[in-house]
């Protein structure tokens, strides 16, 4: 059973890196859905570049973890867990629940990435 769990956690970690890389690109390009979501949850869109840097650092850290530095991968995954716990909390606080599945899925992928690296 451990072999199957290892594969699932690796898939989650890879999914986490890919999903966050796509999200960083969307933030950098100031995609309409990113700006609309920020506005809807009450976050000033001036924060978007800063969020992209934080999320991008998580992606780079995950990639370093895959490249043989598991401690950095773990730290990056833990940082992404914190990032998405806050994202889910912001959605709940703003009562924007129609799209809460997105940060929730990203959170679950980040938790899986933590499991992969520890």
Describe this structure in words.
Helices cover 82% and strands 0% of the residues. It is mainly α. The chain has one domain (2-117). The chain is globular and about 40 Å long. The two termini are 17 Å apart. The mean pLDDT is 97.
Structurally, the number of domains stands at 1
How far the N terminus sits from the C terminus, by CA atoms, comes to: 17 Å
Mean pLDDT: 97
Unreliable parts: none
The succession of helices and strands, N to C, reads HHHHH
Helix/strand/pairing class, anyone?
mainly alpha
Oligomer: single chain
What percent strand?
Answer: under 5%
> Percentage of helical residues?
over 70%
Please count the beta strands (DSSP E, at least 2 residues each). Answer: 0
* Structural Rg: 14 Å
Total helix count?
5
Note the overall shape.
globular
For the report, how would you describe the main beta sheet?
Answer: none
Task: Report a brief summary of the structure.
The chain is mainly α and 118 residues long. Helices cover 82% and strands 0% of the residues.
Question: Top keywords for this entry?
Answer:
5 helices, mainly alpha, 118 residues, 0% strand, single chain, globular
Write the layout of secondary structure elements.
Blueprint: H1 2-28, H2 32-41, H3 48-66, H4 70-93, H5 101-117
Helix pairs in contact: 1-3, 1-5, 3-4, 4-5
């Amino acid at each position: 059973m451990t072999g199957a769990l290892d594969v699932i956690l690796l898939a989650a970690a890879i999914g986490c890196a890919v999903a966050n890389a796509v999200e960083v690109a969307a933030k950098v390009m100031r995609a309409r859905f990113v700006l609309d979501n920020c506005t809807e949850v009450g976050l000033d869109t001036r924060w978007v570049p800063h969020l992209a840097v934080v999320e991008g650092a998580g992606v780079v850290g995950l990639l370093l973890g895959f490249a043989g530095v598991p401690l950095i991968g773990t730290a990056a995954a833990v940082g992404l867990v914190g990032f998405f716990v806050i994202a889910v909390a912001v959605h709940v606080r703003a009562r924007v629940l129609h799209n809460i599945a997105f940060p929730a899925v990203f959170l679950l992928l980040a938790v899986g990435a933590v499991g992969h690296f520890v």
